[in-house]
Design brief:
The protein is of the alpha+beta class. It has three domains: 76 residues, Beta-Lactamase (2-Layer Sandwich); 72 residues, Orthogonal Bundle (Helix Hairpins), CATH 1.10.287; 146 residues, Histidine kinase-like ATPase, C-terminal domain (Heat Shock Protein 90), CATH 3.30.565.10. Helix content is 48%, strand content 23%. The strands form three sheets. The protein has a five-stranded antiparallel beta sheet with strand order 2-1-5-4-3. Strands 7-9-10-12-11 form a five-stranded mixed beta sheet, covered by helices on one side. Strand 4 and strand 5 form a beta hairpin. Helix 6 crosses helix 7. It is elongated, with a radius of gyration of 33 Å. The protein starts with 6 loop residues before the first helix and ends with a strand.
């Protein structure tokens, strides 16, 4: 006959069962807490994370990984560290095998590569600008001498040479300024001085259409760097001229600067009647131009100059086509 279990033994067995169950519940809670913590840590990471079973099914991923499902489909299991381009962005992919699961991470390095490329391009452009500056200076001096001696009917040809040299000199100056950074020497300036500088600069700029310029006639004082502010305004006016030149539907155009003083800032709205901007995303990207003959530095430097003067540059988002410049 089977041995009978006493009441005390049955009670002890039941108590032991409850204890095991309590320990199991506590263990399960610890496991859930640990899993939740791991998920939170993975979610907190700035890069995309995937933990994958050997059959290819995803065991765990963060929201960054979920958002890059298309990138996940391209991951290579046989490489541990490589770069890849996906949807016009650059990523570093790292992978490792652990406990029969494949771990993948994708780190977005687009901005880092952009800065590295800009630094390299800036150094190369600065070196070329230094090499070009001396011969351009000699050509400009010879052109000036030639203008005094050439017969009257040939003077327009020399004038066009001087205008082309002026454009090259501006490109060299902009390139060197971009590579070295903006350094301001601020003094009180009358707007009339900047306006006259701007009108002189327009005289050296080549354009074929009849363009009407309207600048603020009232005079006021700005605290700033004359050379930098001259470049700031001329960059926008030259861009406006180019936009008007590209408009095939009109034989003339207009460029207008409207001034106001708002909450301690000088506010300049620069409007033009030229064609619209093709790609707004490229406006303030160095070496990325929205026009064929641009060098991609004009608006970048303009924004940096405005920032150095405590202001900003913005695209007009409503109403007339143009830009808003604010200077403290």
């Amino acid at each position: 006959m089977a041995e009978m279990i006493s009441a005390e033994e049955l009670k002890a067995l039941i108590d032991q069962t409850y204890k095991v169950e309590e320990e199991y519940v506590a263990l399960r809670q610890s496991y859930d807490y640990l899993q939740s913590t791991i998920e939170q840590v993975i979610e907190f990471l700035p890069n995309a994370i995937w933990i994958v079973e050997l059959d290819g099914s995803i065991f765990l991923q963060n929201s960054q990984g979920k958002g890059l499902g298309g990138l996940f489909e391209t991951l290579r299991w046989d490489e541990q560290d490589y770069e890849v381009t996906f949807q016009e962005r650059s990523y570093v992919i790292k992978s490792a095998l652990h406990n029969e699961k494949q771990l993948f991470s994708a780190t977005d390095i687009t901005e880092q590569k952009r800065k590295e490329n800009l630094a390299t391009m800036g150094q190369m452009a600065a070196h070329l600008s230094h090499e070009i500056r001396n011969p351009i200076g000699s050509i400009a001096l010879l052109a000036s001498t030639l203008m005094k001696r050439v017969i009257e009917e040939n003077k327009p040809i020399v004038a066009e040479i001087q205008k082309s040299l002026y454009r090259i000199e501006r490109i060299i100056k902009a390139t060197l300024m971009f590579s070295k950074g903006i350094s301001t020497q601020k003094t009180p300036l009358q707007w009339s001085i900047i306006r006259n500088e701007l009108k002189n600069a327009i005289g050296y700029y080549s354009y074929a259409k009849e363009i009407h310029f309207q600048f603020p006639e009232e005079d006021f004082v700005l605290q700033g760097d004359l050379d930098l502010l001259g470049m700031l305004f001329s960059n926008f006016v030259f861009n406006a001229i180019d936009a008007i030149e590209l408009d095939e539907e009109s034989e003339e155009g207009s460029v207008e600067i409207v001034y106001s003083h708002v909450d301690g800032f000088h506010r300049f709205a620069i409007y033009d009647s030229g064609i619209g901007i093709v790609n707004e995303k490229l406006l303030f990207e160095a070496f990325e131009s929205t026009k064929e003959k641009g060098n991609g530095l004009g608006l970048v430097l303009a924004k940096n100059i405005a920032t150095a003067h405590g202001g900003n540059v913005e695209l007009c988002t409503s109403g007339r086509k143009g830009f808003i410049i604010t200077l403290r």
